[in-house]
Specification:
Two copies of one chain form a homodimer.
Chain A: H1 4-15, H2 21-28, H3 32-44, E1 48-55, E2 64-72, H4 77-86, E3 90-96, E4 102-108, H5 111-122, E5 125-137
Antiparallel strand pairs in A: 2-4, 2-5, 3-4
The first copy, chain A, binds a DNA duplex (30 and 30 nucleotides) through residues 20-22, 30-34, 36-38.
Chain lengths: 145, 145
DNA sequence: AGCACTTGGTCGATGTCGTCGGTCATGGCA
DNA sequence: TGCCATGACCGACGACATCGACCAAGTGCT
């Protein structure tokens, strides 16, 4: 299904998704048309979901990053989910099992902004906020084999 | 510093980082050499930290995704951090303020694997695990302006 | 066993794209 | 005012992606 060569290609693209087909051909030992065909199939099958870019939020003034655990008040689950989606400063959010219904990542420019945003949520939910001090593991791929 | 055109470029690359310079030129209204120069500067300044790829972990058998809060036992902070980094199934980890020292994302193939991995950690830390049921907000950019 | 079909690859021609040098307009600033 | 730095454009050339034709290996059917 996904063989060694596909994994080499995925790994190479993970490192730099703007690599040319020719460069990928060199890395994988195939010709560039073959690489193009493999990428097409990986996309088609949904293994490769997209090509994207990593940016530094600090460059846009987002000095603070927080992980927020969110527990909606009774009957407010839908409303809270909608609110989170509507606040663009929430850059990711998972709905999880356990007492906390949502765990979300929040980027803000200041403590004041953090306070303001969470106050908005607090009419419909309890929140628990942890400020990110450091990121010991940057986003990476789980092992493939 | 970063003007409107840079933001258009970043947004376009966020959607598809394999777009050609020519395509980016069309989107931004510049010529392709100008786009190349802007990208070069954005990289140089660290705004654009890299071009990467989104893959579907399910395609590699990772059926379960969990958010794990980790509180090292007294004196075990360094050791726990090292352990997390060494376990490739942890695909991201933040060191945060509050009772929980680390919040990490874990991809596993089964409940058994989840149990095994956390048992390894539990000799040095208390953990609190929430299984991801759904992802209401996929990774996205905070507002830029 | 032999044949046809499918799958996944190479090769080479062709057109598109990126890059580089040269040039020009604009906006501080001495 | 005149100079320099910045950031853009243009055009030519070399690099790259794409497409069709072809080939080899594995599979299943008669």
């Amino acid at each position: 299904m996904t063989d060694d060569i596909d994994q080499v290609l995925i790994k190479a693209l993970m490192e730099d998704s703007r690599r040319s087909l020719k460069a990928l051909a060199g890395i994988s030992g195939l010709s560039s048309p073959s690489v193009a065909e493999r990428l097409r199939r990986l996309e088609e099958r949904g293994v490769l979901k997209g090509y994207t870019v990593e940016i530094d939020p600090k460059c846009f003034g987002y000095q603070l990053q927080a992980i927020v655990r969110i527990r909606p008040l009774p009957g407010q689950l839908q409303e809270v989910e909608r609110q989170i989606q509507a606040i663009p400063e929430f850059t990711e959010c998972d709905k999880v099992t356990g007492d906390d219904c949502f765990i979300a990542r929040l980027h803000v420019r200041s403590m004041e902004q953090l306070d303001t945003l969470l106050d908005g949520l607090n009419t419909h939910a309890e929140t628990n906020t942890a400020i990110v001090k450091k990121t010991p593991v940057k986003r990476r791929l789980p092992p493939m084999e």
